Amino acid sequence: MNLTVNGKRLSAEPAPGQCLRTFLREHGWFGVKKGCDQGDCGACTVWLDGVPFHSCLVPAFRAEGRDVTTVEGLARNGRLHPMQQAFLDAQAFQCGFCAAGMIMTSATFDKDACNNLPFKLKGNLCRCTGYHSIEDALHGVVNAEEDVAGHACGTSLRSPYAEAIVTGKAHYTLDVPPMEGMLHLKVLRSPHAHARIKSIKRDAARAVPGVVAVFTWEDVPRKLYSTATHEDHLVDPDDTYILDNVARFVGQRIAAVVAETEAAAEEGCRKLEVDYELLPSVFDPEAAMQPDAPILHDKSIAYRDNIYVDIHGELGDVDAGFAEADAIHEMTYSTSRAQHVHLETHGSLSWLGDDDRLHIRTSSQAPFITKQKICYLFGLFDRQVHVFTERIGGGFGGKQEMLSEDLCALATLKTRRPVMWEFTRAEQFIGATTRHPMTVQVKLGAKKDGTLTAIQVRVVSNTGAYGNHGGETLAASLGSPIAAYRCPNKKADGYAVYTNTLPAGGFRGYGATQTTFAIECAMDDLARELGIDPFTMRRINKVRETDRIESIWKEVSDVMFGSYGVDQCLDRVEEALKSGRGLPKPDGDEWLEGTGVALAMLESGPPTEHRSGAEMKLLPDGSYHLAVGSTEMGNGSATAHRQIAASVLNTRASNVALVNGNTDETPYDTGTFASTGTVVAGQAVEKAATALRDVLLNHAGRYFGCEARECSLQDDAIICANQRVPLSELYAAGTNAGDRFDVVRKAYLSPRSVGFNVHGVRLAVHRVTGEIAVLQSVHAADIGRLINPMQCHGQLDGAIAMGFGWALYEKMVFDETGAVVNPALRDYRIPAFADVPRSEIYFADTYDTVGPLGAKAQGECAINPVAPAVANAIANATGVRFTSLPFTPDRIFDRLGAAAERKPIDQEIEPITPSIR
Amino acid sequence: MNLNTITEVKRPVSRDEIPEWREDYAWLAGGTWLFSTPQIATRTLIDLETLRWPSLSPSASGLEIAATCTIAELERFAAPSAWAAAPLIKLCCHALLMSFKIYNAATVGGNICMSLPAGAMISLTTALEGVYRLWPREGGTRQVQAIEFVTGNHKNLLQPGELLRSIHLPVDALKKRFAFHRSSLTHLGRSAALIIGTSGAETHDLTVTITAATSRPIQINFDRLPSREELRHAIESHVAESDWFDDVHGSARYKRHLTFYYAEQILAELGAR
Predict the structure, then answer these.
(1) 0.95 exceeded by the pTM?
(2) Distance from CA of B169 to the nearest CA of A (A)
(3) Is the torsion defined by CA of A875, A880, A882, A886 positive or negative?
(4) Residue A40 has pLDDT above 50, yes or no
C-alpha cells in the first residue's frame, strides 16, 4: 500500500492484523511509543490527515492513501512546532515517554480545548509529572531558565535530553532498528498459582514456522538467585531460577520461545503442552504463616515455613510505656497492591558482538548489578558482558529488578543470535512486580498532654512468591516512620511472608510508604482522642534536631541530621491550609469538608551498601565530558549531575557532555534507586569535578607562571589576572607537554542524612455517593538545597500524584485462583489529568552538610505522607476512620452510607482490633 | 496491538460478498476494541468500512444511525431544535471512558455490539427507545427493540455472523424531556451508574433507563409520575439482585445505591416543571 509519513512517500505491505503503531516503527518512526498497546495511554498518538488517533488501535491497512504525521514530522523547516516549543519551555515531561503522544494530542487543541484539559487529556497518561508541568505547557508557562556560567546550581535548567524528547528523537530502550538475524522472545506464563511441572511437550511449538528454539527449566543453569538488584547480593534471598519446574504464582514464566517474529513466538507459546501437578496454594500472608499452610520454598536449610524474614526489636520497655499512658490507641491499617506503571514496559535486546562479548541494551535502574547477575548465572567473566541503558521511560523502583535481561541472555547464548523481548502492558501487571501489600497493627500510648509513651507496630508484608526486596522493604517499613517520632519505648515485629501471588518488589517509598500510612493515621486518631490538634500532636512528638535518630534497633546507625527542616514544613503546610486558598466546598449539605495532615521522614539513601563513580575530562574543544554510572529514567539525575559539575567548574551545564548507565563507558555505580541519584552519584560528580578543577588550576598556574590559587575558571576559559585563555588552548598546550586532563572519583554513602515531607489536604466527601473532591493539596519538603528547583518541583508533583493514585484509585484485584482481574490501564486506573489536584509546594530553607552542594534526596519520600493526609482529612470530614486503601467512592459508601442510615456518624469508629501480642 | 493470528482481511463493498460465516471471522468496525486485546480465536477480519453506509440520516420520523457511524460524527451531530432530548447524544458520548481521539475511530454499532454494561451508546439508544435493524445470516432484515438487544455483560441477541446495520431513534422519543445522571469511581472514568429519565413533552409519564449499574440495560415505564416510594418499589421489582453488576469499576451494592439515588433525582427534576 502507499501512504505518506511525515511528508515522505512510503510503499509497503502491513501484515493483515498489524496495527499502525508497529507498522510506523518498523519503518523507523520510533517517536510512536508503546505505553499500553491497548488505546488507554495515548503514547502512540499520530495524525491521519491531521486527525489524532491512537495508532495502536488503527488497523495498518487503513492508512492506505493517508497522510500520517508522527511527532518526528511536526517540526517544519527546522523550527519546532509551537507545542513542541511549549513542552520544551515548560519542561513538561520527566522520563519523556508520554511526551510524543501528549504533544501530538495537544498540538490539535484550540483555545476551548485548552480550557477543557481534564476532558481533552483523559486519553493521555503520564506517570512522572503529576500533569502540573503539562498544564503549564498548555498555558504557555515557561519554567526553564537560561544556562549561564557561574549559575548552574540552583537554576531551573532544561534536561539534556529535552530537545530529543519533544522531537521524538530520544532513543528509549527498544527504539532501535532490528538487528540482522534478530529473534523475538515470548514467554508462556503459568495459569496456576502453585503447580509442579510434570512435563512440557515442545514438538508442536518447535514445528511452528519461524520458531527457532524453546527453553524450559531443563535448559537453564540450575542456579538460584534473586531478581532484586542490590550492591550486597545477600540482602535478598536466592530463591528464584531463570525457569523453574515449580510455578508459585499465576503468571510465573514457564517457558520461553524465540522466533523470527513476535507472531511465531506467541504461536509457539500457545502450542506448548504443559502437564501440571496442581499443588495447594495460599494467598493471604496471615494464612500462610499458619502451621498447616502449604509451603512455597524448601530450597535450603534456611527455610522452615513461609516466613522469609522476621524482624523484631525493642527500645526501652513498651509495656511500661503503655502502663503510664493516659490514652492508648490501637488499630489495624492495610494497604493495597499497586503497580509502578512506568510507561515504558520492561524490555531488553541482547546480542553477541564482533568482539564475541554479550551485549545487553536494557531498561534497568541497575545495569552494573544486572551485569554481575548475568555473569554469575551464565558463568561468564566480567569482561565478557556489557550492559547499558540509553533512555529509560520511567522506573519508580520497578526496574531495580532483573526481569527481562536473563532470558534474552540465555537465548542469545544458546542461539548466538540477537534477541529482543518487550513486555506487554498486561505482563507488567501479571509478571513484573508491585508494591508490597502490608497489614500494619499500630498501638500508641500517650500522656494527656500528647507526649508519646510507647509505640508498638506489627507488620505483615506479603512478599508474594519470591523474596526480592522482601527483607529490605520490611526493614524500611520499621525504620524511618517510627524514627520520625521521639518516644522512649518503641517496639516492632515484622514478617515478610511468601504467598502464591505475584512477587512484590521495590517501589518508590519502599515499605516506609505503607507504615507511614498506618502510623500517621494512628497519630491522628490518638490526637483526636486526646483532643489535640494534629499539627500540635506532631510538633510535640517529632524527632528533634539534637535527638538520636532511632527506630527499634539497639545497633548504632549511620543516619544523622545533615540538616533539619521539619518545623518549617509543618509551619508552611499549616499556614497554607489556613489561608483560605484552594477551592470552596461544593454546595449542598451532602458534602462534608475536612482537613488532614501527615508527616514523613526518610533517609537520603539506603542502609545497604551503595557506591558510585564519576569520570570527568576536558575535551580538545574546551568542553567537558562526564561519565556517570548512574542511570537516568526520568528522575532528573542527569540534569542535576551536569549542573553539579558545571557549578564546580564555573561553566554552563550545556558545556558538559554526559554519558551514563553503561558498564563499558562509565565507572561503576550500584544503581539509581533508594534516593541515591543526587546524594551518591551526585557526590561522585562533585568530587570528580572538583578534582578536575584542581588539575586545571594547577596546570594553569604552570602555564601562566603563577600560583594555582591566582587562577580561576570562567565558562570555557581560564583567567589569571587580566589574561583569559580558552580552555581549548590550555588543552592543546597541556597535552603537547604530556599533561592529561582526566580524573575519576568514587563516592560511598555514609553517613546518611534525612529529609522530611509534610502533606496537607482539604477535601470534601459526598456522604451519599462517596465521591471525594480534593479542594486543596499542600506539600512542604525538606530536601536541602535545590540543585534544579523546577525539577525538584516536578519530582514532588509526580510523587504526590502517585500518592493520590494510591490513596484514591489504584488497586490490583485478584480472583479466587490468584489471577489478576484488572491487568490493563482501563481497569487499573492510574491518575489521569482530571484526577490530580494542583498542589501548592513549599521547600524548607535548609542546606545539607552531607549531600553534594547541600542537596538531599528529592524524588522518593514525597509520596509517603499523601495517602495518610487524605485518610485523615476524610476522618476529619466524616468522623469515620477508613483503614484500608484505596478510598474509592464505593468503599467510602460501604461504610458511610450504612453508617448514615443507622446512627449519628461521629459514633462510627472502627472497632478496636485484637491486642498486639 | 498487532493481532498476530489474523491471516486475512476481507473488504466487501456489499453484503453479498460475505456469503458464508466461519467461527474465526470477526466484523471489523472501528477496531478500537478488537485491536485492544489479543483475538487468538480470530483468523479473518471483515472490514465494514468499505460498505460505506451513510452515518447519520435525520428525517421526520427520527434519526437513523449507521452502525459504522463514528462516535465523533455522532458527537458533532446538530439536531433540530425540536428534539429536546438531543443533548443526550453528547452527554452519552462524553460518558464513554474513551478519549476524544478514540471517537475518531470507534463506532456506535461497535459500542452496542460489545454490550458492556457501561456502553453509553446502549444507554443513549435504549433511553431514546431505539430500534435496531439487524442483518441475519439468512438474509433480509430483522428489527429488535434496543432494550431487548443486550442480554448481559458482553452478551447480546446477535447470532453468529449476524450484523447490526443501523439504529433508529424515533422522533417521539427525541422530543421528550430528559434528565441524565452518571458517576464513576475516577474523574471522567468508566460509568458506575448511568441513569436516564425521559418524559413526554406534554405528558406526565416517566421512563427510567438504568445502565452501567446493571449487567444489561433495564427500563421502567410509568404512565404517570410515580411517588418516591413507587419509584423505589418499581426498581426493586424490576431489577433482580443478580442484575446489579459487580466489577472493578464499582461494587454491585454501590451501583444499586447510586441507581436509587439518581432515579430519585431524575424524578424530582422531571416532576418539577
Answers:
(1) yes
(2) 27
(3) negative
(4) yes
